[in-house]
């Protein structure tokens, strides 16, 4: 009789633990702040993917992102993305050349005041052997490029998702005085970025 | 108190860590060879070497230089005989002279990293140093001469 009572209690406890775990996992999979490993499930949906990429594209083509992803070897500057004054060069590692290294002017943090250099400890362009150009790329071209490890800095899906929180990416939303922010918040960008990637990273139609 | 080493000499600086390094060098330590031009890293008059890099001291905070090695125009050579200084003298480069400590400090980094710079290399390295008198052609000529002097010095050692 004693054993007959004990058995259902154990079973119920086990079911309870299982349900709790399933609940936690379900929550984690729908939480953008969950660890990247929890966000790696790809559920293909070309319509949702292309829709999300349209938002991503508006951010990547904004001055805050595109100015350091130029088509040439000179960074861009300003809301109109003109060539950076003084014409600093990319250099092999993306950190400039000789007396014109990025960090000679760009400090670890934004310099106060208008028309002063914005700052970040890791200020640089993509390196010469992988320029990761945004300027002039169509949505189709940029989407294809972003998921190609030979053009995206050898990033796989996990690293691409992590890149949304990269220090220089975040710096786009802390651009220093007098500079416009990207068109949507970082949270909205990250959500669109992860949605695009985890629904198959489809490229919009076109060339 | 912030400790910095300027031209090989250690200094304890009692100042706001956000103070521009240029103010520390000129107003506290008293080395006035480095000039104030624009104050926003646009002209290059204030270039000094921070651990060998040609930083603009008007926007570089004292805190960035803490515990680091700073070289100013006064410390570039023992007897004002760095190849760039000799070449500047030989070619009579300066007109008003205000920008030239910055120019020479930038040129010294170029010459260290590229002992035989082309015109294009010189333009790339010096594009951030503005000269209101327009001495650019003499600057370029002097850098070529400095490279030659540097090579001769190297060969004679």
From TrEMBL, chain A:
Ranges annotated as spanning the membrane: 12-30
Give the record's keywords alphabetically.
Membrane, Transmembrane, Transmembrane helix
* Protein name as catalogued: Cytochrome c domain-containing protein
Q: Which organism is it from?
A: Mucilaginibacter rigui
TrEMBL record, chain B:
**Any Pfam family hit:** Fer2
Q: Does the keyword Iron-sulfur apply?
A: yes
Q: Which ranges carry the 2Fe-2S ferredoxin-type domain? A: 1-76
Q: Which PROSITE patterns match?
A: 2FE2S_FER_1, 2FE2S_FER_2
Top-rank taxon of the source lineage equals Bacteria
Print the keywords alphabetically.
2Fe-2S, Iron, Iron-sulfur, Metal-binding, Oxidoreductase
Q: What is this protein called?
A: (2Fe-2S)-binding protein
